[in-house]
Amino acid sequence: MITKLFQALSKTRKGIAGAFNTLLNQRVTPETLEMLEETLITADLGIHTTSGIIEVVKKNATINFIKAVRKHMLSILPEEIHELPDIPYVVLVVGVNGTGKTTTAAKLAHYYKSMGRSVILVGADTYRAAALEQLKIWSNRIGVRLVSSQFAKDPSAVIYDGIKAAQNDDSNIVVVDTAGRLHTHKNLMTELEKMKRTIVEKFKDYSVKTMITIDANLGQNSLFQAKEFSNYIDIDAAILTKMDGTAKGGIVFSLNRDLNIPVEFLGIGEDIGDFEIFDQEHYVNSVIGMSDD
Predict the structure, then answer these.
(1) Among 44, 57, 117, 157, which residue's Cβ finds the most Cβ atoms within 10 Å?
(2) pTM beyond cutoff 0.90
């Protein structure tokens, strides 16, 4: 069955599967290995993952090496990390501008609601009025209450109000959309620390999870962004956005191997339902062109 993810990774798969097929149809030589290496780097698998795959191909050159490569790629990624959280629970959605963060927060809220949880959305982007308007539209569409403020300047205060509202409503998951920020804006980065501290200190019965939105098309730049964010706040998981049509689907491996940040969700389109749990086996199969069977 052709899934949305399989379709979304068509450009990534075209490059990688094409390179593998070239090696299968020709001899494994320094020239063809160099071609494979260039393809893997272009797809943003990263130096370490690429080197490992090259070694696997060398060791299995006389047989069909693709199964060995698949096994190696799966060994890099953790087993499925997703589980419905213990309640009550706060999810901080962080990231730079332009990564689809606000839409992703709405998709998360919709997902948790579809799994039977009672959810509140919190609009803690106190800098961008458009983000709040966008969240209002999404909250109405998915039937989730939105807590926000047009006048508050302190996002931690908005988060505080949101969690209080959740307590009053017996809502068990709070999804917080934070303002997009660059790592060079130190004041905005330290603001993230304050947000998490507010939750931990004021609401001791709430668990907190921080998820970073990563634009899959930005490749290694996204890796750098995630590293800088993790200097200020612990990142528990990543949500890859804008997966549809990306040629750089290998960023999953770099995030996990280089930063120990596992991918938990994938955004594979603009619709509210274009959002799925990261499945390592289906992902690897979709990248190299193998069936899940």
Answers:
(1) 44
(2) yes
